[in-house]
Hints:
The chain is mainly β.
Amino acid sequence: DGLVGCVATHQCSFEIQTKDSASNNRFNNGEDPSFVISMVGVKGWAKEGRVNDDRSSSVAASVATTISANEWTYLGPADVTHNSVALSTSHNFLGLLDRGDVIVIEGQTYTVADEGQFDESTVPLDSPYLGPTLSSASLHKASFTCKSGTHTVSYTPLVRGDYEI
């Protein structure tokens, strides 16, 4: 468990469930989260700011965290045109996407169409793209359920002690 059993200088992680102000699960949109998680030492060397035998600091240790949305994979930029049933790209997504896969374009969910041109530069959509015409729009591959709303938080504490999230 990355919250209790983490050892200094080793990467640890834990999972969080995002919720809105009414306690409803917030589902990932591929670019979520728009939140920050900070960890600060509250006990032991981490609170003292001590590093090995150096006691010159009195500032509590802080730990950098990285947050990644589960069930989402960033694929790259794509060009989309309002009301189009395909997106174009300079990246080859053939090895990353299949027909029927769920994708997210700038926060809107689509499915790769069962029919239509699907090659190194074109991905067909099952319905017209209703957003604004964009170049280099963020394209993510999502799970079929898109229901977890969970994120994995990873961190590596460099000073032993207890930390508060």
